[in-house]
Amino acid sequence: MKKTLSLINESRFKQADIVFVADGQANLPPEFIEEFRRTKDKKKFECLSVLIGGETDFQTVQKLSDWVISADDFMTADEAFDI
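Given the sequence above, the corresponding structure tokens read:
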């Protein structure tokens, strides 16, 4: 996520899209979440998160995302392709 944020900050483009696929173990410090949200507002990008597995930190990921999809495995995450 840090590298993604860095690439977006360095880009001259706005309105990028991020697809964040994770096992749901989002150990993100509050400082990073705040920086991500500030950059998201500034650069006008959207983030779709796909959480794979039963143990997911939905609330943390929701702070970063416009959409959050939970699935048991990647093959059942087909809802992500409907957005």
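The two ends are 21 Å apart (CA to CA). Try to locate this feature in the token string yourself.
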